[in-house]
Give the backbone structure.
Amino acid sequence: MNRQELESILPHRGRMLLLDECENIDGVAHGVYTVKGDEFFLDGHFPGNPIVPGVIQCEILAQSACVLLDGIADKGKLAVYTGLNNVKFKSQVKPGDRFETEVRLTRTKHPFYFAEGTGSVDGRVCVKAEFSFAVIDKPAPDPSDG
């Protein structure tokens, strides 16, 4: 799936859509995000030595997991984080890096889904995490949001 196709299953838009592509291959989500260097989360993190924040790496893992929910978290539904466990940051992610994810579901207890994943650059693991999320009814749009 390319970015346009990902928008059909992810609610993220603009600068918060943090995947360039992602595929479900035999129950494993394989995602890719290339760090361009002009992302909002690099502004000030850190001057002269930009590093992708760990929370952003975890968000990319979560967005990758949503590909595994195609058909479950569809129109009218929203997948939201409910927990992060055993997160380990092993290497930095920098501008120009091709950050690749592998995420698999480990357990389901509807409406909760449990997953584990890794994010790597050139085969070097940068982050490992276990996480959970719930698929909930999408709230009605707030009319004040324009």
About this structure: Helices lie at 3-6, 54-65.
